Amino acid sequence: MTLSHKGWHKIEDLKNHRQLNEKAERILKAGNEALHERVDTKVRQLINELSTRTMLEDLKIILEYLYR
Length: 68
Prior knowledge:
mainly alpha
């Protein structure tokens, strides 16, 4: 079984994994906010940077779970 094939079998497990599910929801929310935010202020840029760093860390954790 390839690494990517093994990961697909764990997708179903993500639905029952509360912490990873919350991380995935935060990734979705941060992405939507960054894409649809019309105001471009320094404060918004700092918030987006913090959200992006958090989102990338969450994504790293999810990928580590899928490919362990």
